[in-house]
Amino acid sequence: MRKICIEEHWGTPETEELRMRWLKSIVFRVTLDSEIRNRLLQKMWSFEARLPVMDEYGIAVQVISLSSPGVQGIADPREAVYAAKKLNDAQAELIHKYPDRFAGFAALPLQSPKEAADELERAVTQLGFRGAMIHGHTHGEYLDAEKFRVVWERAEALNAPLYLHVNEPMVDQMKIYQGRPELLGPTWCWGVETATHALRIIFGGMFDAYPKAALILDHMGESLPYVLGRLDEGFTLVGGKKSGKLKKMPSEYFRENVWITTSGKFFPETLQCAIRAIGADRILFATDYPFADTREAVEQIENSPVGEEDKERIFHLNAERLLGL
Ligand code: MN
Prior knowledge:
Elements: E1 3-10, H1 13-23, H2 34-45, H3 50-56, E2 59-66, H4 77-97, E3 102-104, E4 106-107, H5 113-125, E5 132-135, H6 149-158, E6 162-165, H7 189-203, H8 206-209, E7 215-217, H9 219-222, H10 228-237, H11 240-243, H12 250-257, E8 258-261, H13 268-278, E9 283-284, H14 294-302, H15 308-323
Parallel strand pairs: 1-2, 2-3, 4-5, 5-6, 6-7, 7-8, 8-9
Helix pairs in contact: 4-5, 5-6
This protein binds manganese (II) ion (MN).
Manganese (II) ion is lined by residues 7, 9, 165, 263, 288, 291.
């Protein structure tokens, strides 16, 4: 079965230095085992090392993106604009070396929303990218802020999905994790942060303003498919439905404007729940290279009690349609 995976990261020693600079501002954060970290960095920096892995597991195309936090961690907006152009050009070069095997999501300098929208347009129309990878908040600002309407507007016009990827929360959100470092990072903290960010976008009415805009969410939708009924219930209880603040119920936006990916580890029941909640047409395969094991990522779908037609949708048909591959 043809496979396309869409959360696949690359980086260089230079981008790692950007990340380290940004990490200094994060008080509590997940700390990887140093041996694992070094192994992951080597895998990420040697770009070609992924080709034999792709071949081994039948992955036809990786849609690549810069590793977290992309250019969003840069403090100076002008430096971020410059870095985004440079790194998107570098990514385009990697893709053009193997045009049948790779596509890309752009890095956006959201520190300057207008420039970010322009860079998205350049990346899609000139570099052939399929959308953008957004690594969480940008210095405390989330994608429902008024200033980012220009980005949503451009993304909708370009038919370019925005992929919202996990990142560390702002420092002032971290008190609940004090004394429980095992809850940081992928265990729980990143998921809560990313789910809440996605809900800000939905409840902020972005999909009323830009009804054709598409949001992709990692890690099986960060548990949101499981709580869609609860979101509608809460929205109704606080008078949201009556107020006319949104044209539709929260769950409707999730089913119409949001796609989710299979990155990370999940139980077969999770995939079944997601299919029942939002439909197999809205779920896309992702391995989270180099952070997750490719074999596991493939096998957890293959071994799920899901029909062959749905597996075709998840492994490649949805990506072909949504990203025009
Ligand atoms: Mn990832």
